[in-house]
Design brief:
single chain, alpha/beta, Rossmann fold, 6-stranded mixed sheet
Length: 511
């Protein structure tokens, strides 16, 4: 007998479980996908959200349970079968070809033929149209490797919007690398899609976003269905309580003010980074960093935040300006020199720049500090193991065995490994670029606790964050950048949402 989805439901997952060796990622989950709505799927890292979506998109197959679309039960052996049923997915971790131009990425595996070849004139025209619709006019012949993470995210989104028979679009953390302006454009597109009857599954850890764009929320915890409700009937505290079993908010600082009496560990004077073809990415940026201080860097996408870190770490030797470490002038030329001097970087893109995916958890932790474990010409594995075990314990990485693959960890625990890798180099200065990107509110709390813990021990930390509440919560002082210019410096109670937003837009209006 055929199963019929109830009215208003375009897809139903019934009793779906997914068992991996040693873990049950999903446990008898029921999930209704409402037609023409933004269906928010939320839960902490490891709750099973991405696993459920991979099953619906044909990337994984369920260990048990059934999926129905309309009147029929469906089985997707791969993504091609799911796509034939109108299901597309935008992955959290970008799935692009960096050595190919934008237009070829957009039409990969769906090329239009012309004679014996492909119709690249058509591909370029369509690519320009879809990027214009997304208000992102990137030259379509640009190599994807030359784009910033936020731009690459828009390419991933654009690729799915090219599907003619799209019925369901799954978005896994689509805004994690986008500026506020880009998020608003995406929301507008999402509303256009739902108005056409397309159903969207939206996974996000940004609770305020969920309340803005979501229609219906389903919550998973520890691989199980917990609750679902219309967004109009709930609030953020309700969501947090269902996700975690308790009420949580952004962590509040409880730090002493001794850092402000310390001498500067780092001074940067008139840092300027030229842009290819004229102009600049950074211009005359000056600031200092004190021992034990948490210094925040805030600004919109393209403000120059990541470029600032790249200059400090020696990744941009074309910069001009002066650096002083403990009062002594230094020439910043290479990343190896900077690590030796006591600098460590937690990069924004943990998958591409922070982890080696073919190595296990322990070796990812120790990778940057291997020279500390030298014994003659070899690695002292006993010493390495001892330090890695201690680091795992110190920053509460939830792992059964450090020899497991790094990708077996949740996003939050992967991020802790990247942080641990930096801390194992015994740095004086830790640079953290979007340390809470793509992790849930529980893992964010733990990451912020780690930041506070090491600052109390005297580590000087610079944190980039796009989220206002985060930067207000964690930073002792905030430097605001806008279009490569320093537009503000706020301390203590001056650090407020409205002030940060105002300062971040100054460079856009020529003030």
């Amino acid at each position: 007998m055929k199963k019929i989805c109830k009215e208003g439901v375009c897809l139903r997952a019934e009793g779906v479980s997914k068992i991996y060796p040693g873990t049950k990622a999903l446990d008898q989950v029921d999930f209704d996908l409402l037609t023409g709505k933004v269906n928010v799927l939320i839960g902490e890292n490891g709750a099973g959200k991405s696993t459920l979506m991979k099953i619906i998109a044909g990337i994984e197959q369920p260990s048990e349970g059934k999926i129905y679309m309309g009147e029929e039960e469906v089985h997707f052996r791969d993504t091609s079968e799911a796509r034939k049923h109108g299901i597309g997915i935008i992955h959290q971790e970008l799935n692009l070809f960096p050595n190919l131009p934008v237009y070829q990425n957009l039409f990969m595996a769906r090329e239009k033929k012309k004679g014996l070849g492909v119709d690249n004139v058509y591909h370029k025209e369509q690519a320009e149209k879809i990027l214009e619709r997304l208000e992102h006019p990137i030259p379509v012949e640009t190599l994807v490797s030359e784009l910033r993470v936020g731009q690459q995210q828009m390419i991933e989104i654009a690729r799915n919007l090219l599907e003619d028979d799209l019925k369901i679009l799954i978005m896994d953390e689509p805004t994690s690398s986008l500026s506020e302006q880009e998020v608003q454009v995406l929301f507008k597109i999402m509303r256009e899609l739902t108005a056409q009857g397309i159903s969207i599954v939206y996974i996000s850890h940004r609770l305020e976003e969920i309340m803005k764009i979501g229609d219906h929320v389903t919550i998973l915890r520890d691989g199980k269905y917990v609750a679902d409700a219309d967004v109009s009937d709930i609030d953020v505290p309700w969501i947090v309580k269902q996700m975690t079993g308790e009420e949580r908010a952004y962590p509040k600082k409880n730090r002493n003010i001794e850092w402000c009496k310390q001498e500067s560990v780092l001074e940067v004077k008139k840092l300027t980074l030229p842009k290819q073809g004229g102009g600049y990415l950074l211009k005359d940026i000056s600031f200092d960093l004190k021992k034990g201080e948490i210094l925040g860097i805030y600004g919109l996408m393209g403000a120059g935040r990541t470029e600032l870190f790249e200059c400090i770490m020696g990744l941009r030797p074309e910069h001009t300006g002066e650096f002083f470490l403990d009062g002594k002038k230094i020439e910043v030329k290479s990343i190896a020199e900077q690590i030796d001097r006591g600098f460590a970087l937690v990069p924004e893109d943990r998958q591409r720049e922070g982890l080696v995916q073919t190595l296990d958890i322990g070796r990812n932790c120790s990778l940057s500090a291997l020279k500390n474990y030298k014994k003659f010409c070899f690695v002292d594995f006993a010493k390495e193991d001892k330090h890695v075990e201690s680091q795992i314990k110190d920053i509460h990485i939830k792992v059964v065995d450090k020899r497991l693959p790094i990708l077996s960890l949740s996003g939050g625990n992967q991020q802790k490994v990247v942080i641990g890798k930096g801390i194992l180099t015994r740095p004086k200065i830790l640079l953290m670029d979007e340390p809470s990107r793509g992790i849930d509110i529980g893992a964010k709390t733990e990451v912020f606790d780690i930041i506070n813990q090491y600052a109390e021990q005297g580590l000087s930390i610079i944190v980039i964050s796009s989220e206002l509440k985060e930067i207000i919560s964690i930073a002792d002082r905030v430097i605001v950048l806008s279009n490569g210019i320093k537009t503000g410096e706020l301390v203590g109670d001056e650090i407020k949402e409205e002030t940060l937003v105002l300062e971040s837009y100054k460079g856009h209006h020529g003030q």
